[in-house]
Amino acid sequence: MKLYIIRFILMSLVPLFLYQACDELRYTPTGSNYHDLELPDIRKVELSLDIVQDTLTLWGINDFTINTNRHIFQVEVYLDSTKLLQTNSNRFTIETEDFTDGVYALKIKAIVATESPSLASQLHAETFQVEHTNIIEIYNRLPDPVSITSIRPENGLLKMAWSEYKGPQFAEYQIYETIVYNTWSEEVMVKSITDQNQQSWSSPDFIAGTRRYRVRLIAKSQSNFGPDTTIFYPYNTMTLSLNSENLAEIRWQKPIFYRALQKYNIQKKVGNLTFQDWKTINSIYNYNDTSYVDQEFGFGNIAKYRIQYIPNGFGAYLTDPDTISIGESSWEFEKLYHNQDADLMYLFSERITVLHARTFQLVYTRSGTWINNFTISLDYSKAFMKLDQYRFAEVDPVSLINLKTYNLPDYTGYESIVGEIACTNEGLLYISSMTYKSPTVYSDKYYVINPEDTTPVAVVGEGHPKPWPLLIDNFTNGPFQLMRWEETGIHKFENGTLTLTAPIQDKTFFCFNPKRSTYLYSNGNSVTEYDLETNAVLNTINTDYPLRNIQIVNGYKSIAGYSLDGFFQVYDLQSGQLQKQVKLMLPVKGSFYLVNDYLLSTLGFKIQLD
């Protein structure tokens, strides 16, 4: 509002004459003396209030001072046409509580001296009436709240604007933000603005989801909140597929508010474990880069992926996860035997399952704990299983039906507990046993038994202080077994005794050759075939990686195994040439078996190889 003009009105130029009667005194002038006096100039009268604004906003108790260059005789103060007070002081007070908020004319009428050289002026009998008017606003209420007028994307950020505050004593705008999570929300002040003319702000960290904003105005040493404004922008999504190299490729959307993004986190889980933690496998800081190829993806397990959007501040969110794998779902198992002559395979888990190795059709299944309680000869002609702590049975190698049951104490003459068992192609049994001669006296023994003869062929190893002989593999090759006694390795049973022929520290890197009196051992980046009798080196195959769970495959013509580096490889047993290679999921979990043209993972996946 503009300052209204100051109006000066000459009310009177009245000489003041004092008459006093006195009978005793008489005075007769003897002459006359006349002087021309200049009329007082009202344009030289100064009158104002101590107000610096064009429009004054008032609330509470307000003290005013009248500024003038003339002597004041009387002041009248009006609010519009209502007379508020009359005084002869140059100071007055207005209390606004009794007035309704609004715009008023504050008028000052002052009677002041003319300050002319006349006698009347000198006697303060010559005066002006001067008027001065200001436009004021009575503002008893809280500061008028400011409202958000727009909120929208602009230049990669969420920008909001609000209405202007036109009231008195502005201090600051405060921007409040409420982040709405799934089950709770939290409001915080995110920005303070002390420039009254700034009426917009951009959020540096909003990228998606639901948020509420409002502006808190601080003015008149008071505060007032404007109304809430709620916004929602949908969360971005991702897609998952196999690329031409059979690697997992993840693609996701660039956010609308990309300048508020700090980075993308690519997160991964391997396997179906419910409580497994997500692992961040890469972080991307370029908001335009919205795809990633996982070089650690491969066969053998299932992988889950999700994208985490990380803003510059609060409000990170995750895409819905998606899963991907190579090959087909198959059986989960712990160990596999492949009878290449009959083309049958045996899967061991909570049960034993016999399948046709080419069609994967079920032949027979039998429940029970079979992992360490079943042995089958290297030529798959004989099979035995442990029934309980004292009994074992010969079973049909295909149907798994019990053919005959045996009681170990009948052979030992004591209360002997069946431990690990292994059988030869001829049906000879090796049994590790704990034998009780009395309830408190026992010994650990190793029995060689012909099931058709109740007298053991041999009894080896009296327990303490030596460790007892313990079979660590269910296969034997003639008189040779992989076992732990004083040392772990291949032991030969001959003439009633056991003799260590080759130290073997880990059966993961060991296998017998079913067709020859040899064994193979993986050590570093090579697999070596040794003669069982002489321990002479027959052949060495150089491999790209240390191979585990080595197995003779492809009709006994190839050696295969997997590495923790993430590859399953097949090498020709004679030439040593690499024949096939399959990339595995990292980190490598479980184990892998090649059955004809199919690679099987113990975690329940299979893939046909070219």
Notes on the structure:
- The protein is mainly β.
- 1% of the residues lie in helices and 52% in strands.
- The protein has two helices and 53 strands.
- Strands 1, 3, 5, 6, 8 and 9 form a six-stranded mixed beta sheet that branches. Strands 12, 13, 15, 16 and 17 form a five-stranded antiparallel beta sheet that branches.
- The longest helix is centred in the N-terminal third of the chain and has 4 residues, at 119-122.
- The two termini are 88 Å apart.
Write the layout of secondary structure elements.
Layout: E1 7-9, E2 47-49, E3 55-58, E4 61-68, E5 72-79, E6 82-87, E7 91-95, E8 102-113, H1 119-122, E9 127-138, E10 148-154, E11 157-162, E12 170-180, E13 185-193, E14 200-203, E15 209-219, E16 222-225, E17 229-233, E18 238-242, E19 248-252, E20 261-270, E21 279-284, E22 291-294, E23 303-311, E24 317-318, E25 322-324, E26 328-332, E27 335-339, E28 344-348, E29 351-356, E30 362-367, E31 374-376, E32 383-386, E33 391-395, E34 402-407, H2 409-412, E35 415-423, E36 429-436, E37 442-449, E38 458-460, E39 470-477, E40 480-484, E41 488-494, E42 497-503, E43 510-512, E44 518-522, E45 526-531, E46 537-542, E47 548-553, E48 558-563, E49 567-572, E50 578-583, E51 592-595, E52 598-601, E53 603-608
Parallel strand pairs: 3-9
Antiparallel strand pairs: 1-9, 2-4, 4-7, 5-6, 5-8, 8-9, 10-11, 11-14, 12-13, 12-15, 15-16, 15-17, 18-19, 19-22, 20-21, 20-23, 23-24, 23-25, 26-53, 27-28, 28-29, 29-30, 31-32, 32-33, 33-34, 35-36, 36-37, 37-38, 39-40, 40-41, 41-42, 43-44, 44-45, 45-46, 47-48, 48-49, 49-50, 51-52, 52-53
